[in-house]
Design brief:
The chain is of the alpha+beta class. The chain folds into 2 domains: about 35-200, NADH Oxidase (3-Layer(aba) Sandwich), CATH 3.40.109.10; about 205-235, no CATH class. It has helices spanning about 20-30, 45-55, 75-95, 100-105, 115-120, 145-160, 175-180, 215; strands at about 70-75, 125-130, 165, 190-195, 220, 225-230. The chain has a 4-stranded antiparallel beta sheet. The relative contact order is 0.18.
Length: about 240
C-alpha cells in the first residue's frame, strides 16, 4: 500500500489588496482575454512560455496525477505541417461534418477552414491528456483526466493573459495528427492547440458579449431560499 504523503504547514496566498479588490483586478484582466486569430511576428521569449506552463501545471488533478503534457512548438516546419493537417480536417468539417445549426452558430465569428495563425503565431502549445501516469513509481492509473486537463488549460489561458499575450483555443476534430507530427506516445491524446503570441497591431475581433453574472450564478443561501439571475431555467 502506498504511504500517505507527509503533511506540511499550508502557506496561504496573501494578496496585496483586500480580497474583493484583488479578485476584481483579476476579473478585469481575464475579462479582456479574446480569441485572437491575427498575431504579430514579434518573438515571445521561451522563458515566458515556460512560466505560463508552470502556472498551468499548478492546477488540481484527480489523485494528484497531473495527467497533462504541454508541447511548445516554434519550429517553422512543424508549424507548417500542423497547419496543413489541421486545415485538411477543417475543410472536411465545413464541407459536411458540421450540422447546419453548428455552421449557423459559427457564422457571426466569421471563421472558416483557413488557419494562417497556426504559422503566424511565434508559438503553438499543444496540450495532451495522459491516459496513463508514466512516472516510474506510479500505479499507472489516472483519474478525472478531462476535468483535470480542462482546469490546467484554463490556467494556461489566464497566465498568458496576465503576460499580455494573445491566445486562441483551436480544436480541429479529429486531432490525431498532432500526436503523429509531434511524435507523442499513444497514451498521450491531444485536447487543444493554443497559438500564443503578441496580437497584431491592427488586430480585430468580433464584437460579442459574455453572459452577465446574473445569468451564470445561482445563489443558495440560508433559510431555504433560492435566488438566481434572469436564467429562465431557474426560479427564485
Amino acid at each position: 500500500m502506498a504511504k500517505a504523503a507527509p503533511l506540511i504547514p499550508h502557506e496561504p496566498w496573501q494578496p496585496d489588496a483586500d480580497p474583493l479588490a484583488s479578485v476584481q483586478r483579476f476579473r478585469d484582466t481575464v475579462s479582456q482575454r479574446r480569441s485572437v486569430r491575427h498575431f504579430s511576428s514579434e518573438p515571445v521569449d521561451r522563458a515566458i512560455v515556460e512560466a505560463i506552463v508552470a502556472a498551468a501545471g499548478s492546477a488540481p488533478s484527480g489523485a494528484n496525477k497531473q495527467p497533462w503534457r504541454f508541447v511548445a512548438i516554434s519550429d517553422p516546419d512543424l508549424k507548417r505541417r500542423i497547419r496543413e493537417a489541421a486545415e485538411a480536417e477543417e475543410r472536411l468539417f465545413y464541407d459536411g461534418r458540421a450540422s447546419d445549426d453548428w455552421l449557423r452558430d459559427l457564422k457571426p465569428l466569421e471563421v472558416g477552414p483557413d488557419k494562417p495563425f497556426l504559422e503566424e503565431a511565434p508559438w503553438l502549445v499543444a496540450i495532451f491528456k495522459l491516459m496513463q501516469d508514466d512516472r516510474p513509481d506510479s500505479t499507472g492509473r489516472v483519474y478525472y483526466v478531462n476535468e483535470s486537463v480542462g482546469m490546467a488549460a484554463g490556467l494556461f489561458l489566464a497566465a498568458a493573459q496576465q503576460a499580455g499575450l494573445a491566445t486562441l483555443t483551436h480544436t480541429p476534430s479529429p486531432m490525431g495528427f498532432l500526436g503523429e507530427i509531434l511524435e507523442r506516445p499513444a497514451y498521450e491524446r491531444p485536447v487543444v492547440l493554443i497559438p500564443v503570441g503578441w496580437p497584431a497591431a491592427q488586430c480585430m475581433v468580433p464584437d460579442i458579449k459574455r453572459k452577465p453574472v446574473d445569468e451564470i450564478l445561482v445563489w443558495r443561501e440560508g433559510g431555504g431560499s433560492k435566488t438566481s439571475g434572469s436564467n429562465p431555467n431557474t426560479s427564485s
